[in-house]
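Justification of computing resources. Each target in the renewal requires a structure prediction run like the one illustrated here; the chain below, 242 residues long, is used simply to show the kind of job we budget for.
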Amino acid sequence: MCGRYATTRGSGTLSQLFEAYDDTDGGLRPDWNVAPTKPVPVVRVDDEGARALSLARWGLLPPWATSPAAGARMINARAETVATSRAYAAPFARRRCLVPADGWYEWTRTEGGKQPYYLTRTDGDVLALAGIWSVWRGPDGPRLTCSVLTTAALGVLADVHDRMPVLLPPDRWGRWLAPTADPTALLGADEDWLAGLEIRPVGPAVGNVRNEGPELVARVPGVPVPRRRPSVEETADEMTLF
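Resulting structure tokens:
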């Protein structure tokens, strides 16, 4: 997963969707070009056990970080190693969150250069990216930070990029947030949920972090969508038919 996504729903809408109280203090703004270290909405369980919609800095800061700059390198945590990573293991075990998104961006190399794609639900439903959060206590006070979990891309998504965020369908939200749940059992992809994704070619403007607005997610006509390449196993199966 590359380091860009879109989240444009307001705090009222997200609070209702995720059955959480609003803890953003009016600080949530629509963002069609979220980049590392920006404030992003997350849904987490607070110290009282209630579900809260909060703002977190994208890029988790472990307790030993000496500067907020370290978070820019920690926007994503690999699902394959998150449970054993020194930086991510503790948040993965006890401080998991949902990261609401409208969609995310990936880039594919073509003969004409790098082509960006926007991956989103065809039905317009919100995406819940699996995340983890932590509180970093720096010289300016405590700061809530987060990372998004990624995994190997599946199906046609693998033709766009070799990694994808861990996507949690609604029936997994509660279990992911529950402190006593086994999170490793929830990291596998839901094939039906993935089937509802659209791969939309968009313009190059999203490559500049200073660009913002709904035009970034507008479809660019005439650009082909990557087609799924058959796996080694499928190719072998096809060869046995002849």
